[in-house]
Amino acid sequence: MRIRYNAPVTLSFSLLAVAVLIIDMVSPGEFQLRLFSVGPAMNWSSFTDYLRLFTHVLGHASVEHLLGNLALILLLGPILEEKYHSSAMVFMILVTALTTGLGNIIFSDAALLGASGVVFMMILLASFTNVRRGEIPLSFILVVLIYLLREFISALEADSISQLAHIVGGAVGSVFGFIHAPSRSPVNPSGSSETTEENHDR
């Protein structure tokens, strides 16, 4: 029996986030704030600041913050990576990072770092696991209701958590879920699926 690197994007993302936090803990100065966060004071003449629009999802404020995100990323990521493939996962993470980063710059005065937007993208995307085109699964509706209720309650509390990143990440996951919803062939009484014209675009 051997250990397999079963979800390369998910595992690599997680290991990079761990490495960033460790380097920040042993380095003098504000390593993460300079390279792995986004905020209103961006210098658009600097290539580094454009890079931060994507790298901020690797930064975390504390070990607890990192472990809270990794628990869900390592749970959902491998399942989603197997379903949508590694290249699609890279694209989804990059889009989530960019949209949450830009949203924070436009609508918030605080610095943003952490993979919470990626986590909520994965949560909403996972609710589409058994969806078919033309259908909205009840499980997705329930997840959205619970998710929005949680964010509304959190928004009323004075904390340092970015509800905007959660909402944007969840919206990105929902969009990807609808876009990638598979068309499934109807199953006849004998248990075999019937081929239709809709399934011929291989």
From TrEMBL:
Annotated Pfam families: Rhomboid
GO molecular function per UniProt: serine-type endopeptidase activity
Membrane topology: Multi-pass membrane protein
InterPro entries, sorted: Peptidase_S54_rhomboid_dom, Rhomboid-like_sf
Gene Ontology terms: cellular component: membrane
All copies of domain Peptidase S54 rhomboid, residue ranges: 50-180
Protein name per UniProt: Rhomboid family protein
Organism: Salinispira pacifica
